[in-house]
Specification:
With 260 residues, this protein is α+β, with helices and mostly antiparallel strands. It has two domains: 149 residues, YqgF/RNase H-like domain (Nucleotidyltransferase, domain 5), CATH 3.30.420.140; 100 residues, no CATH class. It is 38% helix and 29% strand. The chain contains eight helices and twelve strands. The strands form two sheets. The chain has a six-stranded mixed sheet, with helices on both faces. Strands 7, 8, 9, 10, 11 and 12 form a six-stranded mixed sheet that branches. A hairpin with a 2-residue loop joins strand 8 and strand 9. The longest helix has 25 residues.
Length: 260
C-alpha cells in the first residue's frame, strides 16, 4: 500500500473533499467542508483534513476557462492553494478541474440524488473533487508531471497574466492582473492596463503605474467584475492592495502605484 491522496475542489462557499483507496487506484468522494468566511481558518481546516486522513499528497483543482485561459476564480483559488502549501509539509499539487463540476452534476442526476439545491451542492462538491483526483491518478499512472505549488511558485509568478475585458459598448481592453485580494468579506481584482510596445520604448516620465480595481460579484457559476463607485471604499481597497503589495517581493514598486 502507498500513502493515500486527498483532493480538494475549492469554492468560495464550499470545498469538496475526495480521497483515494489505499492502493491509489481510484477516487472516492469523502465530504464537503463549508467555509467560514475567514480565509486563514479555512486554510487551517483544510490542512487539518489532510493530516487527519494521513495522506502523502494533496491535489487541488485549479479552475480555468474552457479554452484554458485564466479567470478571476483561478487567482482566488490559487491564492488558497499557495496558502495551503505554506501551511502543510505535504506536497500540494494543482490539477486542471475544467468540466468536473458539470460531470458531477450529470452523474448525480443519473444516480437519482435529491434535486434539492442544498443537498445537491453538498454532493456535487465532493464528487467534483473525486473527478479531480481521478484525473490526477490517471496521469500519474502515465508518468505525467504536475505543478508543485511549493517548488514551482517562483517560476509561475514570473509568467505574465493578461486578461481582456469588454465594456457595455463592446470595446475591448487588455489588462495585466496584479492581485486578487479580500477586503471586509469581499473580493477585488487589481489590474493595470497592458503596456503597449511604444510605451515600453519610452523613458519613464515619473508617473506611477495605474491600478484599476474591480469588485468580484456573483457566485461561482456567474462571476463577473463590477466597478467600485464608492470613492472612500475604493481608497480603502487600494490601501489594502498596497499593504499586501509591500509585503511581496515587489515592495520597491509599491510606492509608485496610482489607484483608480
Amino acid at each position: 500500500m502507498q500513502p493515500r491522496i486527498v483532493a480538494f475542489d475549492i469554492g468560495d462557499k464550499r470545498i469538496g473533499v475526495a480521497i483515494s483507496d489505499p492502493f491509489n487506484e481510484y477516487a472516492m468522494p469523502l465530504d464537503t467542508y463549508f467555509r467560514t468566511g475567514n480565509f486563514r481558518d479555512d486554510v487551517a481546516a483544510v490542512a487539518a483534513i489532510a493530516e487527519r486522513e494521513q495522506v502523502g499528497t494533496v491535489v487541488c483543482g485549479l479552475p480555468l476557462n474552457a479554452d484554458g485561459t485564466r479567470s478571476v476564480q483561478t487567482d482566488k483559488t490559487e491564492r488558497f492553494i499557495r496558502a495551503l502549501a505554506e501551511r502543510t509539509a505535504l506536497p500540494v499539487l494543482s490539477e486542471d478541474e475544467r468540466y468536473t463540476t458539470r460531470e458531477a452534476q450529470g452523474d448525480l442526476l443519473k444516480m437519482g440524488i435529491s434535486r434539492r439545491k442544498d443537498k445537491q451542492k453538498k454532493n456535487v462538491d465532493s464528487l467534483a473533487a473525486a473527478y479531480i483526483l481521478e484525473t490526477y491518478l490517471q496521469k500519474i499512472k502515465k508518468g505525467e508531471d504536475h505543478m508543485n505549488m511549493k517548488e514551482d511558485r517562483n517560476d509561475y509568478e514570473e509568467d505574465g497574466n493578461i486578461v481582456e475585458l469588454v465594456d457595455e459598448e463592446g470595446n475591448k481592453e487588455r489588462f495585466e492582473h496584479l492581485a486578487t485580494i479580500e477586503y471586509k468579506g469581499e473580493w477585488y481584482a487589481c489590474l493595470t492596463p497592458e503596456a503597449q510596445p511604444e510605451e515600453l520604448d519610452e523613458e519613464e516620465d515619473g508617473e506611477g503605474e495605474e491600478v484599476v480595481i474591480f469588485r468580484i460579484a456573483g457566485d461561482e457559476d456567474d462571476e463577473h467584475l463590477e466597478t467600485v463607485e464608492d470613492e472612500a471604499l475604493l481608497d480603502e481597497v487600494f490601501a489594502e492592495f498596497c499593504n499586501q503589495y509591500e509585503d511581496s517581493e515587489d515592495a520597491d514598486e509599491a510606492a509608485s502605484l496610482d489607484g483608480e
